[in-house]
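Quick entry between incubations.
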Amino acid sequence: MRRRNVLPGLPLSLGVTLFYVGLIVVLPLAALAFKAASLGFEDYWRIVSSSRSMASYRVTVLSALGATTFNLFFGLALAWVITRYRFPGRRIVDAVVDLPFALPTAVAGIALTALFANSGWFGSVLEGFGIKVAYTPIGIMIAMCFTSLPFIVRTVQPVLEDLDPALEEAAQSLGGSDWTIFRKVILPLLAPALLAGVSLSFARCLGEFGAIIFIAGNQPMSTEITALLIFIRLEEYDYQAAAAIASVLLLAAFFMLAVTNWLQARALRYTVKG
Amino acid sequence: MKIHLENVVKTFESFQAVKGVSLDIESGELVALLGPSGSGKTTILRMVAGLEYADGGAIHFGDQDATDIPVRDRGVGFVFQHYALFPHMTVADNIAFGMKVSKVKRDRSAIESRVSDLLRLVRLEGLGDRFPAQISGGQRQRVALARALSVDPKVLLLDEPFGALDANVRRDLRRWLREIHSELGITTLFVTHDQEEALDLADRVVILKDGQIVQQGTPEEVCRDPKSAFVMKFLGDANVIAAQVRDGRAYVGGLSVEAAGVADGRGELYARPSDIDWSDEGPGIAATISRVLDRADGRRVLATTGAGEALEFDVEPERVVKAGEQGFVTLRRAKVFAV
Amino acid sequence: MSTVSTRRKPPRVGDAPLFRRSLIGIVFVLVAFVILAPLVIIGVEAFSKGWQLYRDTVVHPDTLHAVMLTVLAALIAVPINTVFGIAAAWAITKFDFRGKRFLLVVIEIPFSVSPIVAGVAYLFVYGLQGLFGPWLDAHDIKILFAVPGIIIASMFVTAPFVARELIPLMQAQGRDLEEASTSLGASGWRTFFSVTLPNVKWALLYGVILCNARVMGEFGAVSVVSGNIRGQTNTLPLHIELLYHDYNATGAFAAASILALIAVFTIIAKVALERQGAGRVSKTENPAEKTS
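Done. Structure below.
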């Protein structure tokens, strides 16, 4: 069977792509996996299941869950307001949604710390209510909220824009109330995109570092995130422990990547023509 | 340029789109590849162009084996279904593109004068500065044709050339394409799923089904002598009536129709609506009128036979018929195929 | 689309005035508190001790060196990632081959992997305890804790940016235009530069700008591989951390204000490019379809 391509450039473009991906992405991750695997199961398990590691997973996952839940509602509301309503300042709101992506994480980190420190604009007010944010898990959550907000907005927004108005009109003509139509017609159509946004956002929270280390107290067992623990192990020249814990985050990332891809494939079911 | 396809095969993944097609197209001929979607007609066209490579078989242009010649060097003009006009270039730049990238260097004034010749040929003088988005669908179609002709192709290939246009524009362009073809005399192959288009335009029609040629010939040949029930049905409306075949004749109701070459046993009788006559008295196939449709060019009657078969036929507009009326159908012409 | 015409339309879901106003109100407040306040406080803090101190920090040799290094990293990493992104988009959208979906996923990996993990991974390739470390050391080539390490780590983090802007657009545009160009006798390069590139230029620029913003702001991966040597391997984000931990908060904010300014410019450029149709693939943006 003769198999050739009509357009030119496959060997060159695919060659460049595979070489680059191999060198820049696959090689280092493989090296990390190799290093972690070379530990032997017992050492590996001892490191990744130590109480300090476990505490770091706990605070990371719980904060990420909290931040993602908040962003689920806030992100959906933002996407809804931007696409469905016309009001002065709409374009500006639309534009600044990307600020958390554009602003370097370290910059966001010190800015959030300044806001939520005891003497800061928000920190001093919240302290009146007995709420401490900076140097507590709430601070971690807020930093995660900030950096991962755009994911949900930007995955839901295009789907909301492309939603066929005839669907709601049909539901209205059948006598559905707004809330019913939202729940039974709009939300199910948004769900795949919403879930994909949630999984992207959650993955980002799990790996976030720069924005968090400034605002978190970085106390072992309570406000130390997993990414920071890896960093600390490196500074202690404990490369094996760093490799082992990093491999846990890597596995979590792969898992979230798989979930996201699966959700996106599901989202396409509606749009791909048979 | 004569084109010769020899047992050409193409498979996508596991789907065999073209299953051994052999075809000869004479120099200067205008040939239509006609078939329903999935019949492999576009794949054949793209293989002739070099936009797909055949998995097996050979394609000859004249005496030359063109099977392995890449599209860039094959010397064909291809008009894409959605025209594929370069949206960032003006009409004139689109037409000039092929000459600009050609290995044969032309100076600027030569290109310009050729572009204006082509614009005149496709009757778009004065629109050279427009962008594709600024002209109508029919105009885009003509730009696509001018662009394809600009490289002096040996063969002109058109993929559903009028598919995206509305009926009136289609009819005009059809006539016009025929004129251009007789003016230039270029070997032309086009793909369509519209039998009217194929019959109106082509010197010869090649009918495809499931990746194989089922019949080919002049419009007259395929219309007057369809070789299979598929061709009969695909070329136009046909009434189907079950019949019994005995000794080369098919019998139904009180009628019998010539059925040479059809094996004895159950057969099917195919008749065009215009080949059916309606009368109040027998002999004939008893039927009841269910509905009468009035149209600009006549009166169409829907009826049901005693056996429950739906029939459609035309009567003179002056003829008074009503739903519920009973009568008899006779056949002026019919084709019989074994079931 | 004007407000006048919406007023005349029957209400859609969620158009009840009270609901609409409250939702807009809530979103405004949250946007102000969550997104805008951090931006504002950078400016406020940076100038809290006056213009003079701000100026001193910004023109300090260490800061200037960090700026230079950040720009250098961007000047090298962004073009390389652009070439990669174009090559990947061309291969993936213009051809069919086995493993294409898998390749797409691999290209997206850097988006999901923590920058810290990326940094650690590079240690095990180029570090002394890594694959090539001993060999590099023997030949006196420094990659880690030096500028090349910073650039490579930035390349990892931003590898998908250009590709992921181009791929959906080129996918939607299909192959008709390239096939038409080739059938008219154009070479591959000619087809790319005359036909493909003009139709994806805004998306390409969009990807480049996002890629650049991320390279300049990358912190986690770079902080692992840089070695944090003041005046030598400090990029701007690392320099901010250093100042901050030196209890020079005002200095840190002054340095941060440079990056915040870049972020604001990035967003302005992004909005401008979106008006040219970049950043989103919708059915109407398929030029082959547009002409049909």
